[in-house]
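[Q] Does anyone have a clean structure-token version of this?
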Amino acid sequence: MTNSVAIVTGSSSGIGRATALRLARDFSAIVLVARSGEPLAEVSELVRKMGKQSLVIETDLGAPASADMVVKETLKRFERIDALINIAGAVAGLDVFQMTDDQWESGMALKFHGARRLAIHAWPALKDSKGSIVFISGNAADIPKASSAAVASINAAIEALAKAFADRGLEDGVQVNSISPGAILTGRRLAMLEKAAAAKSISLDEMKKTFLKQAGISRFGEPEDIAELMAFAVSPTSRFMTGTVLRMDGGEVKSN
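[A] Here you go.
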């Protein structure tokens, strides 16, 4: 019998991958969801080597039918869901006057609506298990800039959405929170830094130092930093915490 099951979206790389591997220490089975099949298979193998079960689901959560399929496949295999970790979704970091309607809608389709639909479809199973949901936003929600308007706007919307689900969760026994990372050194972040370095004709190391100075932080975060916070957010220890935004950004957003 499978005692505890966690669904982790975006689990082929970065924060999602680190979270899936971290949760494999605490859960009996991990459902790995992303668009990239080969990297998912690699993560699945690592989960199995830890002595845990895994289920790989290669799908685009931006497609409306995907969420229902993910939940049905999970219940068919494991008969329960105890945690849903919504990490999938990259939003274009473009200027507010450059973003097209299609780019706005694409960002919303995966990161916002994909997570929203998964929460809705998984809700009955989570209600049965008294489970947990974590949404991922980002500290751009607190420091919006014209140069990355969609990132900030969608992250802010996700935090509001998580609080709305948390409100219903008080009645249904489902814990819901969101996590807001800062500058985490994922492959995507590294690519952004490399692009910025090339544009300024400086080295990558110089670009990293410039970014850290401008952000007022001592180092970049690692995916494993956020994975540990994710693990706490779905642990019995955190059960009294719901409707909260947990920010981990090295102090980039200054407290009021």
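[Q] Thanks! Anything notable?
[A] Residues 217 and 252 are 6 Å apart (CA to CA).
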